[in-house]
Amino acid sequence: MIDDPSRSEAYRKNTGEQHESLGQFVEAFEAMVHEAREVCIDLVSRDGRHRDLVQILLHHSSLTSKPIFEMCRAVIAEVINSSIREQIDKANGIVETDPPLLSDAGGNPVVFSVSDRNSYFGLMRFIASEYDDSCQQT
After folding, report:
1. Distance between CA atoms of 116 and 50, rounded to whole angstroms?
2. Model's pTM, two decimal places?
3. How many C-beta atoms lie closer than 10 Å to residue 136's C-beta?
4. How far apart are CA 109 and CA 124, in angstroms?
5. Hey, which of 6, 50, 79, 131 would disulfide with 45, CB 3.0 to 4.6 Å?
6. Model confidence pLDDT, tens digit, residues 102-125
7. What DSSP character marks residue 98?
């Protein structure tokens, strides 16, 4: 009679460890997607009513993790670039009539520098590389 490897203690231990690792990976991946989606929702929505509309769009089943992550990167980049453009315009005497894309709790525009933008882009390149690696594992 041939021994069934699935009945051995070593097999069960190894399988259990693999399932545990897979579960941890899936949880971390889902948390990353959730955060990317929430950042987009927070930055794009102007108020509660708009937030509800944006949530509908970003929770649609056709949006997989990759497009959500790419939209998050693009939205953050636009917020930073808009802040820099507004500072340049202000220095040139151009007054912006629209509210800033990102304000602090007091309603003041959040100001980003070119150095901030460069740091952000470098960080996002690294995260995108890690993200692409994790997508290839799924």
Report:
1. 28
2. 0.78
3. 7
4. 23
5. 50
6. 999 998 999 999 999 999 999 999
7. S
